[in-house]
Specification:
alpha/beta, Rossmann fold, 6-stranded parallel beta sheet, 12 strands
Length: 289
C-alpha cells in the first residue's frame, strides 16, 4: 500500500518510514529532493505529484516549527512560517480533494493558550498566543473546513527512542546530563510528552481503520520539565543532580509569549485504539544514545 507523506525525512516522519517500510511504500513530498523537488507552497507542484499516485492517504508532517523564529515573523503572511504552515496545508488539502485522498494532519498543543491547570481536551477552545500556534491553528481550519476526508492528530514535545539529527526533548536532556551542562529545568512549566515510537503506530491505526476527526495523540500525561529531567536522570542511573528552575523568572527575560501548560488529554484516542500507549516512565527506559 502506498502512502504519501510530507516531511518524511524529519524527526517524526523518518520514524514512520523506519518502522513501517515493509508494510507501506512511501512517497515523500520534499522541496530538497534531488530528483523530484516539490514545494508544498506551490499548488501546481503538489497537485501534479499527488495525481500520479493512487495512494489513499497523505500524512502531513511538514511544518515550520521554530517558535522563536516564527514570533519574529508574526502577522507576516508572506513569511515562511505562514507560507509553510498555512498555505502549504491549504495546498495539501486542495490537492488531496482533487485526487480523492484522506489527509492525516499533524498539529500541536500550541494552538492553546497554556492557561489551563489540567489537561486540554478536544473540546477546549483553541486560543493561540504566539505566531507559530496561530499558523498551526489556521492550518487546522484549512483541514476541518475544506478537506473532504481528514484526521487531525495533535501532539506536544515529541521524542523518539533513538537519537536523530534534530535533537528532541529527551535526547537534549540526556546530552545535558552526560556532559553536566543541563540548564535548570522549570518546575512551574508543564508539557505532555509524545513518544514518537507510539505516535507512528497511531498513524498506522488511522490508515488501518480509516479513523477520522480530531484526536489528541500525545502520552496523555502531564509532566513538568523538572520532573521529566529527573525521571530521565534516574533511568540512566546518573549521579548528576538536576537543578530546578522557574518559568516565572525566565518570562521576565523573554520577548515572546510562552504557554505554561500544553499537556493534552488523550482519553478519546485511548478509548478508540486497539493497542495501549507506552507510559512516559516506560518510554524513557527505551532511550538510546
Amino acid at each position: 500500500m502506498t502512502v504519501i507523506g510530507t516531511g518524511l525525512n524529519g524527526l517524526i516522519g523518518s520514524k514512520l518510514v523506519q518502522m513501517y517500510s515493509e508494510k507501506y511504500s512511501f512517497l515523500n513530498i520534499d522541496r530538497l529532493d534531488q530528483t523530484n523537488p516539490i514545494d508544498i507552497t506551490v499548488l501546481d507542484q503538489v497537485t501534479e505529484f499527488m495525481s500520479t499516485s493512487k495512494a489513499d492517504y497523505v500524512v502531513h508532517f511538514a511544518a515550520f516549527t521554530d517558535v522563536t523564529k516564527a514570533w519574529e515573523q508574526r502577522n507576516d503572511r508572506h513569511g515562511s512560517a505562514f507560507q509553510v504552515n498555512v498555505v502549504g496545508t491549504r495546498n495539501i488539502v486542495t490537492a488531496a480533494n482533487l485526487t480523492h485522498k484522506h489527509v492525516i494532519h499533524v498539529s500541536t498543543a500550541y494552538v492553546f493558550d497554556g492557561r489551563n491547570e489540567g489537561l486540554y481536551t478536544e473540546l477546549d477552545r483553541v486560543h493561540p498566543i504566539e505566531w507559530y500556534g496561530e499558523t498551526k491553528s489556521l492550518a487546522e481550519e484549512e483541514v476541518t473546513k475544506n478537506a473532504q476526508k481528514w484526521t487531525i492528530l495533535r501532539i506536544d514535545q515529541p521524542f523518539r527512542s533513538d537519537p536523530f539529527v534534530k535533537v528532541d526533548l529527551a535526547h537534549r536532556i540526556l546530552t545535558g546530563l552526560q556532559h553536566d551542562t543541563l540548564f535548570p529545568q522549570f518546575s512551574d512549566h508543564f508539557i505532555g510528552p509524545t513518544f514518537i515510537d507510539d505516535f507512528v503506530k497511531v498513524i498506522d491505526w488511522v490508515i488501518r481503520t480509516g479513523a477520522s476527526g480530531l484526536f489528541h495523540a500525545s502520552s496523555g500525561e502531564k509532566w513538568s520539565d523538572f520532573e521529566l529531567a529527573k525521571l530521565i536522570n534516574e533511568s540512566q542511573q546518573s549521579r548528576i543532580i538536576v537543578k530546578e528552575g522557574y518559568l516565572a523568572e525566565y518570562l521576565k527575560t523573554l520577548h515572546r509569549p510562552y504557554q505554561k501548560n500544553t499537556a493534552l488529554d488523550c482519553s478519546k484516542l485511548k478509548a478508540a485504539l486497539d493497542f495501549p500507549l507506552t507510559s512516559i516512565k516506560d518510554a524513557v527506559k527505551l532511550l538510546t544514545i
